[in-house]
Amino acid sequence: MWELLRALWAVGCIPIGALLLIVLVLCGFNLAFFLGISGGADPVVRWLFWALVLYFVGGVWVFWWGDQRYAGKLKLLAAEFQAQGFRPQVEVFAKMSDAYLGIDGSARRLLAYPVDGQGHFFQLDEISSWRIVPAGKRNHRLEVLTRNPRLPVFSLVLKPTEVLATEARLAALLGV
Which H or E element spans position 31? Predict the structure, then answer.
């Protein structure tokens, strides 16, 4: 649901941005008017401008807030598993803070979250392969292929800054 709202907001930015540009051009980029310092054009135009700006700023803030909230929940979940004895050498949090992958090399287990809305442990011998593939201009997707028929592929989107470090840690722990 969250991803659907994010996609709808992003698609809505196109006509809203075009309308905002039209308002700016028709008012001559008059900053004093938009700030309410000078009069001139109809005040409805000023309110329209601020409503459009709030659409952009509010959307960014809502999705940033949601991402921080999910990140907090994900870190609590990882801490709960660590309290139960799971000691990961590699932890990967998804870019959108909606997925987690942890690998405990000493116990030979891999924790994937979410699988049917909860965490799922795999034995490392169930992992047939893994790969990091480009997904778009700046995103990369980590895909873990398993022999488990219930979940043949677990994937998550990586932050661009974590791609090389994650690839090196996974190669050291799981092999190439």
Answer: helix 31-34
